[in-house]
Design brief:
The structure holds 2 protein chains of 2 kinds.
Chain A: E1 5-7, E2 10-14, E3 19-24, E4 29-37, E5 43-50, E6 55-58, E7 61-66, E8 71-76, E9 85-93, E10 98-100, E11 104-109
Parallel strand pairs in A: 2-11
Antiparallel strand pairs in A: 1-3, 3-8, 4-5, 4-9, 6-7, 7-8, 9-10, 9-11
Chain B: E1 5-7, E2 10-13, E3 19-24, E4 31-38, E5 42-50, E6 53-57, E7 64-68, E8 74-78, E9 87-94, E10 106-107, E11 111-115
The chains are: A mainly beta, B mainly beta.
Amino acid sequence: SQQGEEDPQALSIQEGENATMNCSYKTSINNLQWYRQNSGRGLVHLILIRSNEREKHSGRLRVTLDTSKKSSSLLITASRAADTASYFCATVSNDYKLSFGAGTTVTVRA
Amino acid sequence: KAGVTQTPRYLIKTRGQQVTLSCSPISGHRSVSWYQQTPGQGLQFLFEYFSETQRNKGNFPGRFSGRQFSNSRSEMNVSTLELGDSALYLCASSFRAGPSGTGELFFGEGSRLTVL
């Protein structure tokens, strides 16, 4: 079963625009991670945010975590064609089990 | 540093056969986990090994099994293949100082299994 659920399922934006996707989860977590997957390839780790953190930045990525609402968001600023991919959130429970959400498919149009 | 290596990359089997997939983690990583990815079910956790011991197991039938060797390389086996086993099987390794904690996962490119 999947703990994290991403929203929206799919997102289409113009190059240069920002892309925002959300992840909601059900039970307490140790940390939450975001991954990117290009079509048919392996996943690439983007960012990890711990349960006691509220916001993290990495280049054009900004992740927020609201443990009271059990939700996280991933913002990609100034999107590029190379950002076209599927994005997954992964929650790590307090007993260290990692569970992926269903993913958000992002298409960046030139 | 070499990444996670999975072999074979592609394979085709028929129903009833069995298959073994291999995963070589990043040097120094002692944790290896396996995932099944399908369009319908998404990424499903199969199992995780740490220092040759299975630490966690997902909700898959006993036809799915795995093991880890002393050099941290891991194999997974699926016996009596069914059509529904067609999927991309992903292996990931991570550096863990002990049996607890899950940080960043490093994924291989996957083994794409087609069952006819």
